[in-house]
Amino acid sequence: MSDYGSKRRHYRGVLTVYGRKPVLEALADPGLACERLHLASSNRRDPILTRILDLAAERGVETRGHSREALARISRNGRQDQGVALDIRCPHFAELGEGLAALAARPATRLLALDGVTNPQNAGMAIRSARAGDIDGILYADRGNPALGPLVIKGSAGTLYGAPLLRCGTVAEGAAACRDAGYTVYTLAAGAPLNLFTAPLAPKTLFVLGGESDGVSPAVQALATEALSVPMAEGVESLNVAVTAALVAYAAKLRGG
Amino acid sequence: MSDYGSKRRHYRGVLTVYGRKPVLEALADPGLACERLHLASSNRRDPILTRILDLAAERGVETRGHSREALARISRNGRQDQGVALDIRCPHFAELGEGLAALAARPATRLLALDGVTNPQNAGMAIRSARAGDIDGILYADRGNPALGPLVIKGSAGTLYGAPLLRCGTVAEGAAACRDAGYTVYTLAAGAPLNLFTAPLAPKTLFVLGGESDGVSPAVQALATEALSVPMAEGVESLNVAVTAALVAYAAKLRGG
């Protein structure tokens, strides 16, 4: 494997958290695999930074100094990183292709993708719900999904770190790769004729949930085989995307499966 | 019926919206029964206020002027009302006792209460989910539930106006009234032995969901017969309350209750 491929694989399994409070909280959580602490050389000592350095030393986390500009490239958010970033290894993050290969032998697999969901707290809540309901993988795109920052982590109530994130370039690329790997692509759409709770579903499914305003994008729509709907009482036109994610994730249990 | 009782009954069926943008949006929605527009006499004309007055005139909505202080008593939020409030008749709001009486003849009834849920957007989202999933009534307390203001309306995506809100003093009083009316009170609690999706449930049920940090209060806990849990995958300790509300609403609906 090329050095580039190996670096890319490494990067795909790492979540870089930034900001003093989030970094401190992560270092204080013994369940997280903290790999490397990045600090801006311009940082002034304060009680939180001292505590961060103490915890990193206690845990044996490697610490590196950077220029302010280099740190901003690592955190990808120079305006909010407060000169601190932390690489956390997330054991269930994977490049989509490798994730699909690892899942190939299973007889039934349920994946979830969010298409055009721009609110990071909703994305985080959807991840939390999907994890709770035993979704096997959550497609997460570099372009088209909210950056994996503090608001997604907060929305996920910290469950993001352990989530099976299958990382891809765009949602459409990811959905196409799933289809090529034998998955049936279902979109969720209000008013679609097939009922999520009663329609027969393929054993390998990708459920795509659209954004609150624009729904599923045409590029992803073109890859879908069927549209499913959640039946709703009169007077209600749609559901929050994180709520829909929960119903999709728990649909098997709600069906009595 | 006494004049007091009649006033109270009237008040229980009315939602008072405040702030210029929310009032404008409500007046522009032909589906809403706008009853009375309240304005502070100190208001200066601006384009939004002009539009509000035009819409009220077009729709034949009675308009009343008040002192700034009197308007603050009507809106119950003088800091954010911007001198404008609008009474909207919500056809499915009721005093709890009357609501229970109206539901008494049904063979199966499913009610929902939120106990200690302080985030108004979560409360609104839970109302939206409960309505979508055909919950027959949502207990809503004057003390213990977030004020029915703009954030609840926003969280509910406007579904609050048509929601079957059963209004009571406190959640514990409401739960006690339900129990006295023959309802079985179930709390939702992580790790409870009974599974929401498979446990046999009484035909008349009140599901109580606790707040995100403290769960169900001891006073309500004491009224409950059983605790139900949503099964969750390892590594996830809880679900967002609006997500739990959706699973409760749809679990009941899908059981054919």
From TrEMBL, chains A, B:
Coiled coil: none annotated. Keywords: Methyltransferase, Transferase. SUPFAM superfamilies: alpha/beta knot, L30e-like. One of its GO terms (cellular component) is cytosol. GO terms for molecular function: RNA binding; RNA methyltransferase activity. Residues 16-94 form the RNA 2-O ribose methyltransferase substrate binding domain. CDD domains: SpoU-like_rRNA-MTase. One of its GO terms (biological process) is RNA processing. It comes from the Bacteria. Pfam families: SpoU_methylase (PF00588), SpoU_sub_bind (PF08032). This is RNA methyltransferase, TrmA family. It comes from Pseudohaliea rubra DSM 19751.
